Structure formats: structure tokens, C-alpha cells
């Protein structure tokens, strides 16, 4: 039962990543593309954690924490670039 | 019993993540699209991390360091959404027809003309 629900959740996240990629390609505005990249980071965190459940190992949580951190920093940098035209003034 | 709870949490998390990403494709303009990923996807990831904690409790040795990721995501998702909305108002992303609160654009334009910091 656990394996079946794990497969279902992984399929959901996979379809979500495809939808994010679609919004990343067609997005009419720059902010749409930034939002798509940010959501892809969050979905990748979920995917890596589920892969950790699948392989029954604890190693992947550090990778997930690192990706969550980098996703926020990259979104902040993109927004700062849009707001100011420069990242480090 | 724990296995059933873990499975239900995984299914709920997957459905919420799918809902958030689907709303980002479906909704008409940027300001409405901002709602889906920042709320639904964050809840979905939180639910999946809870399932991972329960799964590590099944295998013995409960570890709470996954909670750090949940805490971090729940803190940073609203901050990122606020920064995105602010930069969208700054570069004057078009609203959908029939939207209200046009004065937000005026405020953003005034802040652009006279930067305070």
C-alpha cells in the first residue's frame, strides 16, 4: 500500500513539473517565469524526499534542505534584479 | 496503522502539489497565478515531509531534522510571494480585465519616481 501511494505521489509531482515547465516556456511575463522556477524548486524538494523514502536512506534530506535554501536565494536575487536593475549595488 | 497514515499523507501531498501547479497553468493573469504555488504547493510539500517523518518512525529511529525543511519552506514561501508581487507591480504587469485596486499601481509608480532608500 505504501509503495502504491508513493508511486501515485511521484506521478503527481512529475506531472506538476511538466506543467511548471510549460508555464516556464510560454509565460508571457518575466515574473511568471520566476514563479515557475520557484515552484519547480519546491516540487524538486518533494521529489527528492520521496526518493529518500523509496530507497529508505537518510542521505537525501541534506540535499533537499540545500535545494530549498538555493531556491529561495535565487528567487530573491531575481526579484531584486527586477526591482533595482542590479543585484549587488 | 502508521503505514496507512503515511500513505494517506503521501496521497494528500501529491494531490495538493498537482493542484498548485495546475492552477498556475489554468488561471488568467499573474496576480491570480501567484496564489496556487505559494499556498497549495507549500501545504503539499509539508504533508509529504510529515509522511517522511512517520516513515522514519516506522523503521525505528525517529529523526526530526526533516522538520527544518518544513519550517524553512513555510517561512520563505510567503516572503518569496511578497517579493514577486512587489516586483510585478514595479514592472507594471498587466491585470486581468475587471480587476480592482488600481491604486496599487499608482503607489508603485510613486515609489519608483522617488526611491526612499
Automatic annotation (TrEMBL), chain A:
<comment type="similarity">
    <text>Belongs to the CPA3 antiporters (TC 2.A.63) subunit F family.</text>
</comment>
<dbReference type="Pfam" id="PF04066">
    <property type="entry name" value="MrpF_PhaF"/>
</dbReference>
<dbReference type="GO" id="GO:0005886">
    <property type="term" value="C:plasma membrane"/>
</dbReference>
<feature type="transmembrane region" description="Helical">
    <location>
        <begin position="59"/>
        <end position="83"/>
    </location>
</feature>
<keyword id="KW-0812">Transmembrane</keyword>
<keyword id="KW-1133">Transmembrane helix</keyword>
<protein>
    <submittedName>
        <fullName>K+/H+ antiporter subunit F</fullName>
    </submittedName>
</protein>
<keyword id="KW-0472">Membrane</keyword>
<keyword id="KW-1003">Cell membrane</keyword>
<dbReference type="InterPro" id="IPR007208">
    <property type="entry name" value="MrpF/PhaF-like"/>
</dbReference>
<keyword id="KW-0813">Transport</keyword>
<feature type="transmembrane region" description="Helical">
    <location>
        <begin position="34"/>
        <end position="53"/>
    </location>
</feature>
<keyword id="KW-0406">Ion transport</keyword>
<feature type="transmembrane region" description="Helical">
    <location>
        <begin position="6"/>
        <end position="22"/>
    </location>
</feature>
<keyword id="KW-0050">Antiport</keyword>
<dbReference type="GO" id="GO:0015385">
    <property type="term" value="F:sodium:proton antiporter activity"/>
</dbReference>
Automatic annotation (TrEMBL), chain B:
<feature type="transmembrane region" description="Helical">
    <location>
        <begin position="7"/>
        <end position="25"/>
    </location>
</feature>
<dbReference type="Pfam" id="PF03334">
    <property type="entry name" value="PhaG_MnhG_YufB"/>
</dbReference>
<dbReference type="InterPro" id="IPR005133">
    <property type="entry name" value="PhaG_MnhG_YufB"/>
</dbReference>
<protein>
    <submittedName>
        <fullName>Na+/H+ antiporter subunit G</fullName>
    </submittedName>
</protein>
<keyword id="KW-0812">Transmembrane</keyword>
<feature type="transmembrane region" description="Helical">
    <location>
        <begin position="40"/>
        <end position="60"/>
    </location>
</feature>
<keyword id="KW-1133">Transmembrane helix</keyword>
<keyword id="KW-0472">Membrane</keyword>
<feature type="transmembrane region" description="Helical">
    <location>
        <begin position="67"/>
        <end position="85"/>
    </location>
</feature>
<dbReference type="GO" id="GO:0015385">
    <property type="term" value="F:sodium:proton antiporter activity"/>
</dbReference>
Amino acid at each position: 500500500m505504501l509503495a502504491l501511494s508513493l508511486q501515485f505521489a511521484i506521478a503527481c509531482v512529475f506531472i506538476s513539473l511538466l506543467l511548471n515547465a510549460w508555464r516556464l516556456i510560454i509565460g508571457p511575463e518575466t515574473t511568471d517565469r520566476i514563479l515557475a522556477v520557484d515552484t519547480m524548486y519546491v516540487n524538486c524538494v518533494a521529489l527528492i524526499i520521496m526518493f529518500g523514502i523509496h530507497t529508505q536512506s537518510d542521505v537525501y534530506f541534506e540535499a533537499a534542505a540545500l535545494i530549498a535554501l538555493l531556491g529561495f536565494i535565487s528567487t530573491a536575487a531575481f526579484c531584486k534584479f527586477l526591482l533595482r536593475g542590479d543585484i549587488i549595488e | 496503522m502508521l503505514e496507512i497514515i503515511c500513505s494517506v499523507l503521501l496521497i494528500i501531498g501529491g494531490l495538493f502539489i498537482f493542484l498548485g501547479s495546475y492552477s498556475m497553468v489554468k488561471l488568467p493573469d499573474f496576480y491570480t497565478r501567484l496564489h496556487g504555488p505559494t499556498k497549495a504547493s507549500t501545504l503539499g510539500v509539508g504533508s509529504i515531509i510529515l509522511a517522511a517523518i512517520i516513515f522514519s518512525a516506522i523503521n525505528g529511529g525517529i529523526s526530526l531534522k526533516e522538520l527544518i525543511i518544513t519550517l524553512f519552506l513555510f517561512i520563505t514561501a510567503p516572503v518569496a510571494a511578497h517579493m514577486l508581487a512587489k516586483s510585478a507591480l514595479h514592472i507594471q504587469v498587466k491585470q486581468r480585465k475587471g480587476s480592482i485596486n488600481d491604486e496599487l499601481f499608482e503607489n508603485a509608480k510613486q515609489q519608483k519616481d522617488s526611491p526612499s532608500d
